[in-house]
Amino acid sequence: MKRENINYLVVGSFVLLMVVVFFVILYQITGRTGPMDTYYVIYSNVTGVKYGTPVLYEGYQVGQVEKIEPKREAGSTRYQLTLAVTRDWTIPSDSIASLVASGLLSAITVEIKEGTNPSLLKPGDYIEGREAANIFAAVNEVAGELQDLSRESIKPLINNLNNQINSLVSDLRDLTTNSIRPLVDNVKQELDQQVFVDLNKLLDNLNDGSERMLQLLDDNNLNNLNQFLDNMETASSTLNDLLDRIEETRAAMNGVLIDIDELVVDNQENMKVSVNDLRKSLDVISQNINAIVYHMEGSTRNMHELSRQLRENPGLILKGSPQPDEATSK
User: Fold this and answer.
1) Helix or strand or coil: residue 315?
2) d(CA 37, CA 29)
3) Euclidean distance between CA atoms 94 and 150, whole angstroms
4) d(CA 175, CA 177)
5) 108: left (phi over 0), alpha (psi -120 to 50) or beta
6) Distance between CA 107 and CA 79 in Å, rounded?
7) How many beta carbons lie within 10 A of that of residue 56, not counting itself?
8) pTM for this structure?
9) Residue 106: helix, strand or coil by DSSP?
10) For the chain, which residues make up each domain, given as ranges?
11) What's the pLDDT tens digit per position in 265-283?
């Protein structure tokens, strides 16, 4: 009997211990690990939020959602969340509590973004709330708008465009059948005749040109052309020699000019003396020009008289009387 009591005691103790462990684990899971402070935040949509939703402060869990209360204000329903936060946890007054999800499949959490205001919130105060961005709702909304756009705008536009294209194709078919094809046939016929005439003219011109080329390229013309090229080569050589001689002459003239320049520089004083003497001679001549002209006039008269006498009596030269001998006369 005593042994059975011991067994019951052991089993009861084990069960009691397991119950205590269960409640401890449950308490840990719910996030209530000690004394808590209460804060409030209001949202217009609390999708995914429930009792026990973790409350994070810059990613660190500081509590959980204790209660969700709907409130009707100004004609709309809003939801007040009661947050249980670790006691004495400092929260600046400009902090923001947002509903966020770390991934597409992650649970919603209340993320408190720390503010910079030095004043702190007191337990029981309201934290400014920011709605969560619901990706799936946004995708559904965009899909709905795209569906409406496709139904109301794109599809009618495509139908209208299709009708316009069909009408344009029909008009082009009629234009091709009734206008362009006959015009093309007519132009083709005219071009065929004109091309045939132009081709014959071209062939005649080519034949005439080939005959003229053959005439130009006969043996005599080729010989003349070769001779002309030889003459041009000879003339080019002669011209080169002439240019060389001209260059030599130019160099010699440069030397002569240099010598003349040196001569003028060296005999500058002598030339001044000669010019002065020439000026004096011209002055003397200008002073005696009247006497010189008078004597020249007398000589001219005597020459005229002598020529007149010789014309009248040419023998005067032979019959001239000799001059008297001064010795005999004495």
Assistant:
1) coil
2) 18
3) 45
4) 6
5) beta
6) 19
7) 18
8) 0.38
9) coil
10) 1-30, 36-133
11) 777 777 788 888 888 888 8
